Amino acid sequence: xxxxFTRTNGEIDTLIDTLMEKxxxxxxxxxxxxxxxxxxxxGQETSYPADLKLLNNTMKEMRYTTNVFAPYRNSRKVTIFGxxxxxxxxxxxxxxxxxxxxxxxxxYMIITGGGPGIMQAxxxxxGSDRSFAVNxxxxxxxxxxxxxxxxxxxxxxxxFFNRKVAFVKESNAIAVFPGGFGTLDEAMExxxxxxxxxxxxKPLVLIDDSDGYWDRWFDFVxxxxxxxxxxxxxxxxxxxxxxxxxxAIRVIEEFYHNYHSLRFFEERLIIRLNKELTREQIDExxxxxxxxxxxxxxxxxxxxxxxxxxxxxxxxxxxxxxQFDHQHYGLLIAFIRKINMF
Length: 342
Fold this sequence. Notes:
The chain is of the alpha/beta class.
């Protein structure tokens, strides 16, 4: 029998409904039904066991990730990337300890990869009670650090891609310390996700060491990547480089001074705010960022859309709406920074 996501499967649909009823307390049954159909279709279409194992393990890892993070949905979180080989006596390790401790004192929680080096520094500074560790099982270098070893917010992943989803999806800001291939891979993926609009805008802070690790990276990006036209100048709005942990914290906090969050509904972009903008301020945004809007459209205040009813705790926030062009995501970061100046 060829299964369909529409309710045209006869007895199979009835059995799925009965199964969910027997399980009890199923949230959003329409979505759960589609997940069950996907599993059944995979069983019909895929005979290679390694592919089915990948689908199965991915689902289990993401379910567990959601379960661990769900109680902390309303807590601001900062993800910290950096080298597993950084030693505790190195100045950049101590910078990370101070950085995460100061964030924890301000109410933030810290997400790290849960291993040694900069990851341990991040968990050490924030303390076990304010930390998450999204660890990856490797044959070397990546055992959970002693701060997080028995922590209920320690998650051990088989797949890098699931781990990367947790790092970005659950964070409100990203801080990247110097590191090797893994650190650069994680940082470049965040660049790409923000640049292409595949994750919500968030501050990305590159915290440098005394040798100018990120300064040298910036020289390469400017001379080679920008010089060859592979990126646009507006993409430099995506990140901030600093050697000062206090400046890094200011960048993170200022990003949410007035900006709260956003939602896309096709071309319509809804930006939620902590305080309402005046018409004069909106006019200033229109004049300074005309590229963000589709031709002939305006920025306006608006009430919450019916589609936002799934986030009831945010319905009271003031909003602005614009027809976004889905191209200038680097400029969107600059737009948000301008909003935060009002």
